[in-house]
What we know:
By secondary structure, this protein is mainly beta. The protein is built from no helices and 11 strands. The radius of gyration is 13 Å and the shape is globular. The N and C termini lie far apart (40 Å).
Amino acid sequence: QVQLVESGGGLVQAGGSLRLSCTASGRIFQNYAVGWFRQPPGMQREFVATITWSGDNLAYADYVKGRFTLSRDVTKNTVYLEMSSLEPRDTAIYYCARSLYSSTAPLTGSIEYGYWGQGTQVTVSS
Length: 126
């Protein structure tokens, strides 16, 4: 069974930083893409960033480029999303997900992901 657990969310002032973690049960990330999505209040879920497990391919949404950074620790089966220069518009529930199929390319569409964590709330105050 594929299980993903996000952590690291919280309340932060504008300009601050947070690091989100997405940890998988077992080696279920190997050969797959791992993505981060977010759902702002009253809005649809949107793509944030993605990384292939090899670490060679990453992609970021334009609205987080230069502020958010992905990394992964293969020994811990964990993907990290470092978020800096946070803005109130970054307020959302953040979800990590694993792609349905093996992929060596970054995947930006939520439909390409079949396994999701429960989400972690990020609130940025002005």
